[in-house]
């Protein structure tokens, strides 16, 4: 297999050095295990990916597809004896079609780099994960990544209109369309999005673009209790569609303020940050309407930011949530979604988990679509606390399911949540997952042991 990989790629594009392999064993998640691959391959073309996969299929060698390694569920962690196929060198934009509103790109390009490229053509790519500066488009497709703007513009699946995919036997297929509408055949494109590299390797993505929105108007509301913040979110989403609606709890606010002091109210139970990207006075009116709903729900302070720098600071505070909490100790990031009407219940239940398991949990997330990221922080190197943190992690998954939610909103199942997925899906759905996997990957070479329910 190694000889076949080296024959398919250019000199230096197959790595076996143990020190370099170590860098490609793990993604960004914590609490996940990883094996040792025999090599990492760095293809530059679709044909090279196809040659690698065909050889792996012949020799029954497991393949772990990998982009930037920014995943948070262990989905791109290496497996013992596997070949890691890393597409980071497939990072070119193939073309932008302004008239038809799409871009075709290789999968290794960073999300932010793609956004900047299409901006040069006067267009905008909407999905914006918090990790947009260092996550790749291929990884976004594989996990169906969301982001701060998805409350209005949808997640990655809503932006994908076509894919080029290498299948398990090395064949190459083009899925999807170039037209705005199209219902020919099954939605195989949608099936691939979010499949976490278990059904194929994406080598090209055709992504929907939009005209850039107007500069946003930012609204902020402070709450003395989480129930009021939850009522505000439900009310806002019933009357309007903000382009962003984010939440941070008291623990997160204190972590961010300690890490990067900016005058945040660390006594508040919750902070809501909302934006309207409607132009001019229309956007200001929508922002005022948002704040009116917050006041009705019991906000203790509401204001609309007139200063773009202040707006950037407040949104920056939300983007700093993960690094701020990470700076406080060992961390374990969860990702659950619940119906918006049950958001306050979810946060209250997570607070109870924090007390019962004796761990600190900072909860923040995309309130507008009910997607929360409870982050468990424990003292560095404290193994007993780490064990309690893992128990708390699974308690939070149970909370989400008990509230009619899901165990993952945007980070994927990976290694961390396979058991929980088995609980979320009914037996027929579990059977269907197995049948689809068997049909598209009969030898089970693509990312074995990841993303699928245990059956």
TrEMBL record:
Q: Name one GO molecular function term.
A: oxidoreductase activity
**What Pfam families does its record include?**
FAD-oxidase_C, FAD_binding_4
**Flavoprotein: is it a keyword of this entry?**
yes
Q: Name its co-factor(s).
A: FAD
Protein's UniProt keywords contain Membrane: no
Could you tell me which InterPro entries the record lists for this protein?
Answer: FAD-bd_oxidored_4_C, FAD-bd_PCMH, FAD-bd_PCMH-like_sf, FAD-bd_PCMH_sub2, FAD-linked_Oxase-like_C, FAD-linked_OxidoTrans_Type4, Oxid_FAD_bind_N, Vanillyl_alc_oxidase_C-sub2
* Keywords for this protein: FAD, Flavoprotein, Oxidoreductase
- The segment(s) forming the FAD-binding PCMH-type domain are 33-212
Q: Which PANTHER family match?
A: GLYCOLATE OXIDASE SUBUNIT GLCD
Record-stated family = Belongs to the FAD-binding oxidoreductase/transferase type 4 family.
What is this protein called in UniProt? Unannotated protein
Q: Which organism is it from?
A: freshwater metagenome
Upper lineage ranks?
unclassified sequences, metagenomes, ecological metagenomes
